[in-house]
Amino acid sequence: MKILIIGGMGLIGGAITEAAVKENHEVTVLSRRVPFEKWKGLSVTFLQGNWKDDAFAEEAVADFFDVIVDTQIFDEKQIIRSMGIINNHCKHFIYISTDSVYAHPNENLSEDKEIHLEDIHWDYGIKKRKAELYLLSHGDEYSFRWSVIRPTLTFGNTRIPVGFSSKRGAYNLVERIEEQKPILRFDDSVSRHSLCHVSTFGGASVRLFLNENAYGRFFHISDDYSYTYDEIFEAIENVVGKKGKFVFCDTKLLEKYSPWVYDEMIYDKNPEFTLDNSNIKALCPEMSFHPNLQEIMRETITYLRGRKEVSGDDPDYDKLTDLLLMKGNYLDSESRQLVSDYMDQLPESYKKEVVAYGRNARKRIIVNEIKKRLSPIKHMILKKL
Question: Is pLDDT of 147 > 60?
Fold first, then answer.
């Protein structure tokens, strides 16, 4: 089959790319990034450019594809544009949505669970759901058949699947365990969460390609087992050989300095949330949906450690962590002492950097709020002009 993957070098798109190549499909990847390392070794055609550029996008789909996968749709406007561009240029369109279209918390959700927009409190999930609703209402008006995948927390060598972590590809979280620095957690450590390793996600996704049983349907792709963050951290600790020093913090403090991360924590990463994956398993009876977490964490940490010089650090993660540790009001004496001892070891120059980081974070939040409030006025003025 001829496959086009829009955004085919990211975590989600990359998983589908690798799996499609393994299945000997003729794969074309569209990305703004230049192919690097592992991508250069794959039998893939690369189209470098911006999918948001209409002329480039139309040229990219000029050849007819059996399947087009779009990982770059984040709202209704974008799905209308993408579907218009690919119309008459493929047989099967796959939209990568999200499990954030559901209310959180929730347990053992099936794809036919009724969804109410008013129950979704994260803007990301609301916009993704509105794109789904357009597809449901207008999908039959296009030349292609369609399917929707709702990924859960998907992880691989560049991502450690805990709620609050360093950015993809950065080693900072593991390094804090190694160096016995306090690690912030905002989760209820006993709540369970659906996860999915990239190998499972990619392998299951390609089995939807031109599959008549997948047309007009939504699919969860997740592990058979749901994990607590305690279990995930334990797997990391076993690889590192050291116990993490965890400090649990009130999410309200996080909201003050990083409302974007706060929204992700309380509406997606923290609450108990598990999925029923029986629909995708029915289409992939030969696949395993429960890889060994310990082995995966060993592989991930080895990869991140080896890539540290190339990928670089995540100073924002460390500074936000240390800022919240500095500002936190810890109820238990063990946490207070742990944070106090840690702060005593930090250089005064670094503490000043952390305080400045906090001031700048607050300024950005205020400026963004002002822009948000002025936006309707700006649009109204421009409309009159």
Answer: yes
